[in-house]
Amino acid sequence: xxxxxxxxxxxxxxxxxxxxxxxxxxxxxxxxxxxxxxxxxxxxxxxxxxxxxxxxxxxxxxxxxxxxxxxxxxxxxxxxxxxxxxxxxxxxxxxxxxxxxxxxxxxxxxxxxxxxxxxxxxxxxxxxxxxxxxxxxxxxxxxxxxxxxxxxxxxxxxxxxxxxxxxxxxxxxxxxxxxxxxxxxxxxxxxxxxxx
Length: 196
Hints:
By secondary structure, the protein is α+β, with helices and mostly antiparallel strands. It has eight helices and six strands, in the order ααααααββαββββα. It folds into two domains: about 100 residues, no CATH class; about 70 residues, no CATH class. Helix 1 packs across helix 2 and helix 3 crosses helix 5. The radius of gyration is 19 Å and the shape is elongated.
């Protein structure tokens, strides 16, 4: 029913390859997800019963939600910038708005992205106490980790550095209800082990 200009489709794939650094199959899958998302968003706008976003950032966040659901993952800030041909600051704003508005619908995708974007290293010492340091490769993954820790009631047990996108915490903490392994609660593995 929906016809797509093959030349424009090729150009979109090429943009994700050249500007976002995606391999061609991943770029093709992302463009297909974006096309399906646009159709879904248009149908929801026409036939839906909820309010339609009127601000540009909210509208793009709504469209991005569909793209993420269709692709089964949360797009990186760079991919969002390429998708909407916008600045890094605007791309981050779109991602932040999407996270705030659609967090429940995309919870699994956010958690998967957080785990994929995390790098765990050991910190501290036997004298000062053994700790884990987790660095995230993008802001949205860091934000998801903080939200998960807050949901789990463990936010008070971490040292967070938003400018470095890192969190640090004792390897085991005495939380209400007993000892807690924060790394395991986040679904992250210690260095040298596979992520859960």
